[in-house]
Design a protein that fits this description.
The protein is mainly α. The protein has two helices and no strands. The longest helix is centred in the N-terminal third of the chain and has 38 residues, at about 5-40.
């Protein structure tokens, strides 16, 4: 691959990573907002959210080990 082609490829990859970071931020903001609203409205407690997150993480770990 020529130097110029490498440079454009690198620039394209950097742009894709930047887009992914922006998308990740927006998704995290949406999830955080939903969690805050659920807690504020008394529908869930922070402990319930933590417990469910730990449960889901353990299940994911279990599935990855299969």
């Amino acid at each position: 691959m020529r130097s110029t082609e490498y440079g454009w490829h690198f620039l394209d990859l950097a742009s894709q990573v930047s887009d992914m970071k922006h998308d990740h931020y927006r998704q995290l903001l949406a999830v955080s907002t939903l969690i805050e609203l659920l807690v504020e409205k008394g529908l869930l407690t922070p402990d319930e959210i933590r417990d469910k997150a730990a449960e889901m993480e353990a299940e994911l770990d279990r599935q990855l080990l299969l």
